[in-house]
Amino acid sequence: MDYSKHFVRDPAVCGGAAVVKGTRVTVRTILATLAEGATAKQILEDFPSLTEGDVRAVIAFAAASAEEDLPVTGVPHIG
What we know:
Layout: E1 7-8, E2 19-20, H1 27-35, H2 40-46, H3 52-68
Antiparallel strand pairs: 1-2
């Protein structure tokens, strides 16, 4: 998924944090809401300016970031 078409950074919007294009909803807010246990449906209800594709793009971005940049610490190693 090409998630980059869903996000933008603008110093005049949310201090330059990555937001979903056309909104003031930050990628971080969506990720935190998911981490707290919200479903995509709940996020769409809470942030009606978002689309299902936007939420999927945030998830894809997080997966790609975890794979490329984030060390996996504190996870037990089996074997």
